[in-house]
Each structure stands twice: as structure tokens, then as C-alpha cells.
């Protein structure tokens, strides 16, 4: 029988009532003839609570025990979902990660999936079980310890199961009804997309659209898993939600499909560093060792053998970046006149596969911002994305203006 993977996020299993509602939806797919693999998150708020317990007990916790504790929320919802299905006379049982076994690396709290053997679950399907309810977010290391896949990891569990079982589709049930052209809280003209290409979704996810864990999109792209994002709170038709798919499946590619923003950016500039071979390595190696997540990098023109170097990083890493750079200055590996941090910026990006074949997208973006009197501080581009840093007070204005200019507004 064809296999379908259905993943329910924390808000979709937050109460027994909601678990019943989700189970009903599973029952509909079973009635259509699918064998279903259900992946569940923990009840919403549960994982945060468990992380809090760990941190309060042991600030410098043993990551293996962290995983033992924070993976437990999913065990509860997996068992409850299986019980609920059984109450509806749907043959179901639950599986914890280690029982599958979902094999991962030993990188506790951010483990990667290595292998998902299908024989155990397939044998049960062969014996008449119709639904395998699997606890998301967790697996087992080569050492036999419980691991977790990083926050939001159940999305990745779901896609990995869809790939391993050759599922027809992977439906991600969440509290929004799909992927939007931009954040509807910032722009009331935001429109739900019917389809979005993997690469665009990947850019949007890494730019801070929180619908899907970035790694789940990477995995779906690699294994060509058809991913659908939809709400568990609305009546569903087969066209509901947003399909994340191969670009070939999208008839008309938009030049720009979405406008993303990230509030949490800081711009740091090293003023007057020696412009010599190795200087970028001398600056960015200590930053990377300190765990600073550098995003944009600009080296300015050089005069008299000295140059300014600007980069961006998350606001909460500014102190760490300053510390690392000052230490490098003290050790003599770099020499700058000043280090200036601007924490009042945000990043605005336009994303679209159509950019590959259309010229003038950057020019148009800059013109729109200039018409609004918004000054651009840093620019970077990739094949399908243009990002700028601007003052944070312009965030809403910039998103709204770009959304309109690139014809993304919903029909009035
Ligand atoms: N429960 C985990 C978390 O909150 C994993 C997930 O829900 O995807 O991050
Ligand atoms: Mg999630």
C-alpha cells in the first residue's frame, strides 16, 4: 500500500482534544488506503519546560542526559496518539526513535540522521498495522545513547521517514495554513503560496521563516520528497496548504517569491586593518572558533595599505565577537584602529528562483528602498537572493514596499 507521512507539530497535539482531531485526520488517510507513518512533536511548551529543568539542575549539563530528558516529550504524545487511534479502531502502535531504530551520529542535541531501517515497521504494516506513530526529534547513537536532532527536529524526522519509506508525500501539520510571501504579522497583504520551490524554501527557512527546520528542507530537496505544509486547524482539501516541491513542478516561476526579514542582526566594522594576504583568515578564524555565526561580509576599498572590514552576525553574539577580536588584537594577529558595533539593524531579503533568468531585480530593490528614503548599509547576493542591512526602524516599511513592488500583494 502507498505510504504517507503525516507530521503533527506541538500546537497540533497540545491537548487530548487536539490529538483526537489529528487522529481523525489520520483516519481519513487510512480510509483512502494509505499506510500512514505519523511523526509527533511534544505538546507545545513541553520541550522548553524540559530544557528549563535541565539547565536549572546542571548549568554545564552532560549533553547525553540533556537528550535523555528533552526527548521525553515526544514519547508521551506518540503513546497518546497510538491510544487515540486504537480507540477509533485504527490498528496503530507507537515507536520511540531507538526502537525503529533511527540511527544518528553521536553529536548530542544536534545529531544527524545516519540511517532508518524500514524492516521493523514494514513487517508490522504487513501484519495489518495501519499507522506507525513515531516520536519525532529523537534517535540513537552508535554508543546506544538517546540523541536529539536540534530544536524543530521533528520536521527532519518526518522528511527522513518519507525518504526512507518512499512515501507519496510528507504532510507537515502546523498552526499556520502554509508558507506565505512574507510574514503576515508585518504585512497584511501577505499571500499564501500554493507552491514554492525547495531552493526558495531553503533560503526562506534559513532567513528566519520558522515554518520548517532548515535541515528538513535540505533533506527533502536531496531526496525529492514532496513536502506539504498545512494547518491542522482548518478543514482540508487536497489542495490545502503549500506544496514545497521541485521547481519543474511550478508552472510559472515568480521572479521574486518571498520577502524575508530578520530582526536579530548586528553589523560590526573593524576600522583600518592592515590590507595584506591572510587578513581575512586572521579575522574570521577566531570568530569561527568563538562560535560566532558570521553572515554577510564586506571588505571595503583599501587606502595606504589599510582597509575596513564589515560583517554581520546575530545580535546576541556581538559580545562574543568583540571578545574574540580583541583577544586576536592583543595576541598581535590582527591590528585595527577601532571596532564599531551597530545593533540597530535588520536584514531584508528578496528570494526567488526567477532571479536566475531575470535581470534588474537588485536595481529594482534598491530603487524601492531609496524611494522610501531607506539607506542601505550592507548588500549581499546569491543566485536566488538579495539581502540588505538597513536600520531596524525601517523593517516594516521596507518589507511592505518590496512586497508591493514585486507584485506579491494578495488580490484586494
Ligand atoms: N519538540 C522539539 C522542539 O520543540 C522538536 C520539534 O517539535 O520539532 O524543538
Ligand atoms: Mg516546529
TrEMBL record:
Its EC number is 2.7.2.4. It catalyses: L-aspartate + ATP = 4-phospho-L-aspartate + ADP. PROSITE patterns: ACT (PS51671), ASPARTOKINASE (PS00324). SUPFAM superfamilies: ACT-like, Carbamate kinase-like. Keywords: Amino-acid biosynthesis, ATP-binding, Kinase, Lysine biosynthesis, Nucleotide-binding, Transferase. It comes from the Bacteria. One of its GO terms (molecular function) is aspartate kinase activity. The keyword tRNA processing does not apply. One of its GO terms (cellular component) is cytosol. Residues 268-348, 350-412 form the ACT domain. Pathway: Amino-acid biosynthesis; L-threonine biosynthesis; L-threonine from L-aspartate: step 1/5; Amino-acid biosynthesis; L-lysine biosynthesis via DAP pathway; (S)-tetrahydrodipicolinate from L-aspartate: step 1/4; Amino-acid biosynthesis; L-methionine biosynthesis via de novo pathway; L-homoserine from L-aspartate: step 1/3. Belongs to the aspartokinase family. This is Aspartokinase. It comes from Salipiger pallidus.
